[in-house]
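sorry to bug you again but im stuck and you know this stuff better than me. what follows is a protein written twice so to speak, once as letters and once as structure tokens for the fold. id like you to explain what the token line says about the fold, in plain words if possible. anything you notice is useful, everything is just below.
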Amino acid sequence: MSTWILLRGLMRESRHWGDFPGQFRRAVPDADVVALDLPGNGRLCSVASPSRVGEMTEFCRANLLQRGICPPYHLLAMSMGAMVALDWAAKYPEELGGCVLINTSVRPFSPFFHRLRPENYPALIGLALLGGSAHDWEATIFRLTSKRVDDRDAIVRSWIRYRCEHPVSRRNALRQLLAAARYRAPADRPVPRLLILGSAGDALVSPRCSRRLALRWRTAYAEHPDAGHDIPLDDGAWVIREIQLWLQTG
């Protein structure tokens, strides 16, 4: 039995994985899949978000131990969740059997205009300064992170419900942004078993970020030809196949 810890990103919660955890369990029968909420998000929306990634790492580790879920762990993470995974790997490599990072963008390997594409600045700044309805926010996030068209409206409605049920406070949102801005990845690959997944169709973050990280750390890398930033949402089966191939390489 292997324990897989799933970590999402800025102001997202475990439900934003959609049906991916179920797909993963069916494809990897010996996997115990645990999708965590970072403090300030999801069921933990009333908890203060740490302003440093390292404190998020410690929160997650303590949460798992309190639940009787002990290492070793495999971490599967995207966006800010990937920063937590990297910090975890750098500090406690003995706790991890491996890490899978999806569309990761971190300092010092990529400049800020690759970590967030400049063409997205107007939409995001406009929402931040002028406000917007829950629909405006979630529809914009969907447009920036996904290429799915078949059930777009249903997914956006689900995300609006999550936002209403577990609202992320402005203070927590700002603290998460500060934590992400402060974080710097280690210079060297922090754990031997590391897979980086990117997407050529990522409209939010330049795929050069993942490519550069994989090249610098000389680690396994696979790139989806056209999925959006949220590859597990757009093509969860592809993510699972790449992980299975990676696990088979030993």
Summary: The mean pLDDT is 90. The radius of gyration is 17 Å.
